[in-house]
Design brief:
This protein is of the alpha/beta class. The chain has 12 helices and 12 strands. It folds into 3 domains: 44 residues, 434 Repressor (Amino-terminal Domain); 129 residues, Response regulator (Rossmann fold, 3-Layer(aba) Sandwich); 132 residues, 3-Layer(aba) Sandwich (Rossmann fold). Helices cover 42% and strands 16% of the residues. The termini are far apart. The structure holds a DNA duplex. This is LacI family transcriptional regulator. Keywords: DNA-binding, Transcription, Transcription regulation.
Length: 339
DNA sequence: GAGCTATAAATTCCCACCCC
DNA sequence: GGGGTGGGAATTTATAGCTC
């Protein structure tokens, strides 16, 4: 049943029915109740396409992820999306996930907007200099960055304190007696990797240790990257006594690589993985020490709330949220070998 | 084939009507 | 006269159908 048919059933205009159902104050309570009851009885639901046409909104928000990033196999990303979807669904907003080749991301953002498919965006995996953010800022499209960038004072964002988290990891290893700590990190064009590198340097500096650039190993943002980094570090003439992986994708590969080299954790080398080993990995049972960003689903809720705040016109500086990561003890940090 | 018109379904601005 | 109530018409974009 459509609006026209419902209006014929009730003997009221389409206007009155629409306003009664949408909570307008200039409809009497008696008429509203009558309309609501008839809508329930006849199973009336506004036609979504027509509604979107009339209000000029898609009532959907988008996430564009580059193909090959591995996000859809990432339990943390999926948990965040789950939380985001739950919160948006309660507001009758859909979450549209679009994949795009990395070189075609901006075109995908543009296409979804032009076709009226989304009203706003969540921008994941922010980069220090991020053309997606520059584009959305120019187009004046509501968006929330999931992560910060170098120039993010005037945008809404949600992030974890990556620098503090990595400094915390280094402090834990120092406390266990390690002085020779390596970092395996994702490309520092990604903002989180840049901040975690700063945290690593800050952690050493706080302990009065000199910078150890030879212990900083850049890797591809893949499990293979972590695996190769394990070999690079541990097959060198003087391997480190401890390693921190700056994310769980690299971390899984790193731990697999260390085990394949016949090394014992923590007797031969101590390991901390930022974000931890995902529960769906066979390596999860090792109990790898971690820096954790608790409750990804709540992060999704927060992102939805920030986007809502943006569309309600709240000031941007009230829409910048930084959560603190925590240290999760495990069984892969011990005293340095030979100690 | 080009150009114009009608139509779809819902929202919403503006206004008319009714009754106290 | 004014508040409460409800209706007319414009609006949105894509598309089918019609005329020339």
């Amino acid at each position: 049943m459509d609006l026209k048919q419902l209006s014929q059933v009730l003997g009221l205009s389409q206007t009155t029915i629409s306003r009664a159902l949408n909570g307008y104050a200039d409809v009497s309570e008696r008429t509203r109740e009558r309309v609501m009851a008839a809508a329930r009885e006849h199973g009336y639901r506004p036609n979504g396409a027509a509604r979107r046409l009339a209000v000029g909104r898609s009532e959907a928000m988008g996430i564009v992820y580059p193909t090959g990033s591995g996000d859809l196999g990432d339990p943390r990303f999926l948990a965040m999306v789950g939380g985001l979807t739950d919160r948006c669904a309660a507001r009758n907003i859909d979450v549209l996930i679009a994949s795009s080749p990395p070189e075609g991301e901006l075109a995908t953002y543009e296409r979804l907007l032009r076709n009226g498919r989304v009203d706003g965006y969540i921008v994941p995996h922010t980069r220090r200099s991020d053309p997606r953010i520059d584009y959305l800022r120019t187009r004046r499209v509501p968006f929330v960055a999931y992560g910060r960038c170098d120039d993010c004072q005037d945008i809404a964002w949600f992030d974890f304190d990556n620098e503090a988290g990595m400094a915390l990891a280094v402090a834990q290893l120092l406390r266990a007696g390690h002085q020779d700590i390596a970092l395996v990190h994702a490309p520092t064009s990604l903002n989180f990797a840049h901040q975690r590198l700063l945290g690593y340097q800050r952690g050493l500096q706080a302990a009065g240790l000199p910078p150890q650039p030879q212990r900083v190993v850049p890797a591809e943002f893949t499990r293979v990257g972590g695996y190769q980094a394990a070999q690079t570090l541990m097959q060198s003439a003087r391997p480190p006594t401890a390693i921190v992986a700056d994310n769980h994708v690299l971390g899984v590969g790193l731990v697999r690589g260390l085990l394949d080299l016949g090394l014992r954790l923590p007797e031969d080398v101590s390991v901390i993985v930022y974000d931890g080993i995902p529960a769906d990995s066979p390596l999860h049972s090792l109990g790898v020490n971690a820096i954790e960003q608790p409750d990804a689903a709540s992060a999704g809720h927060c992102l939805a709330d920030l986007l809502q705040g943006l569309t309600e016109g709240r000031p941007v500086d009230a829409l910048q949220v930084l959560w603190q990561p925590v240290y999760a003890p495990g069984r892969t940090v011990g005293p340095p070998r030979g100690a």
